[in-house]
Structure prediction request, 120 residues.
Amino acid sequence: QVQVVESGGGLVQAGGSLRLSCTASGLTFDDHTMGWFRQAPGKEREGVACIRRSTYHADSMKGRFFISRDLAKNTVYLQMNSLKPEDTAMYYCAAAGVYYGLDERKYNYWGQGTQVTVSS
Prediction:
């Protein structure tokens, strides 16, 4: 059974940093694309970044958010710097099989999310 579990969310002041973690079990980590998505209140979910053997970051996140992974730990990270109030959202981690990109419809396994709140 595949499990995807996020952690690391919380409350941070604008300009601060947070690192989210996502651990996946029950799948071959290196054979999957791991992606981060977020959904703010009243908005659609959007892709943030994904990683397989390379990384891809959504344009609006480039330079502030960085995705990485530790294969030995089956864990993917999202380092978020220079946070803004508009980054407030529920952040989700997800796994996809052969797909590489940020189309959420192509992701098979999802975590429950971790809340990030950025105060001004």
